[in-house]
Design a protein that fits this description.
The chain is of the alpha+beta class. The chain is 50% helix and 24% strand. Strands 3-2-7-6-5 form a 5-stranded antiparallel β-sheet, with helices on both faces. Helix 2 packs antiparallel against helix 6 (151-179).
């Protein structure tokens, strides 16, 4: 190993590969996180608008979209409005012909903190960027649950993963060709 590292070209190649790995890895992490976090934007905005409308006197049935979102196959934003007992007042979300609700712990956390956001998997293969906020004052209070499928965001992340891996392999190959491939003499 020491003999291999004594070769200046090997050390330069390792340095190039190391820098490329760090730069591509950091770039990938930033793009991946930015893409995943952007999935939270529309559910947040939708929940905030619904809260304002409900506080302004609108009925939940007027605030919640009438178009149903099948959580298995649709990527549209959905909304569920419940009372403080977690009884569904209005919903645009459907999963297996029913309105799903997050686990009880989510409602407890949201009651204490006013909001919660998380990745919800109500069923295997169904992943949703979810926002839950409270609204109103007792006895006219409850929860607004909004969300959006993570599928399009995860598909983009898969593409970014393939591109980052291809770029890293290209750096490995190109730098190997330039620095380590035995030089041939031109005649």
């Amino acid at each position: 190993m020491n003999k291999l590292l004594a070769n200046a070209n090997v050390r330069v190649w390792l340095a190039v590969v190391g820098v490329a790995t760090l730069v591509l890895g950091a770039s990938y992490a930033m793009v991946q996180q930015s893409t995943r976090l952007s999935a939270d934007d529309l559910p947040l905005t939708t929940a905030q608008v619904a809260k304002q409308e409900l506080l302004g006197g609108s009925n939940a049935t007027d605030v919640v979209p009438t178009l149903k979102t099948d959580l298995k196959s649709d990527t549209s934003v959905f909304m569920i409005v419940t009372d403080n007992s977690k009884h569904v007042i209005a919903s645009s979300a459907m999963l297996n012909s029913q309105t799903p609700l997050p686990p009880n712990g989510v409602f407890e956390f949201t009651t204490q903190h006013g909001s919660d956001h998380f990745t919800w998997e109500p069923q295997d293969g169904v992943r949703v960027a979810t926002r839950v906020i409270t609204y109103g004052k007792s006895p006219d209070d409850g929860f607004i649950i909004t969300g959006q499928s993570l599928k399009p965001f995860e598909d983009r992340i898969s593409t970014y993963t393939a591109l980052a891996l291809a770029a890293w392999l290209a750096v490995l190959a190109w730098s190997y060709l330039l620095l380590l491939l035995p030089k041939t003499k031109l005649k």
